[in-house]
Model the fold of this input.
Amino acid sequence: MKNESEGQSIGISEKSADMLDTLLSHYVSGSLPVPVNTMVEAHLEMRDDSRTLVRGMEAVAGVQMENIESAPLLSRKKMFDQIVGSDAPAPLAEISSGRNCSIFPKSLQNFTGFTAEDVPWRTKLPGFKEFSIGEWDGCEAELLWIRAGRAMPAHTHGGSELTLVLSGGFSDVDGHYVRGDIAAADESDDHRPIADPGETCICLAITTAPLKLTGSMTQLFSDIFGR
Done:
């Protein structure tokens, strides 16, 4: 899956492309954890092709629902109470194109309460800041700010990680990711992401376990202090 519309010759990894298909299908079924659902909504605001794919999935799901034999409504009041008391994701019709949106798509602004200019960043390393949004359903969500050209320390994962690029881009051994891309990583990945030159890289990251630093002490020292 290449970012030809962004003028990039290197696309996202096969793992990330497969994960995106899985995320979109679970989004349609309404089964994603809260922060991941927000990530997918933000992705859909930025990517026409994914919105088209989701509309197709929803159309197929609608046909399948029409073919399911209806069951008697035992309690109209009970069903009404369940509907108005639910936190169902917004329908796709309410997710518009993100061509004119700011760095943070509207769904992310609603979720965090911030625009990119308002985030109370906390410096973690030279050229690297973060802001913890919180934890839901076993998923830790945070915003990342990475200086252009900055290499992150080499690491692997104790669980799964999803990263949505909001501004700039980054690359690792598996691929190159730009605005709107979702990168997927897990315990099988040992990588060293590097922000693209020329523009600050801002991302939304969701993890299910802490990162684990890897590499030699010399490389680690260089990654932490040398870039």
Confidence is low (pLDDT under 50) at residues 1-9, 70-94, 96-100. The chain has one domain: 9-227.
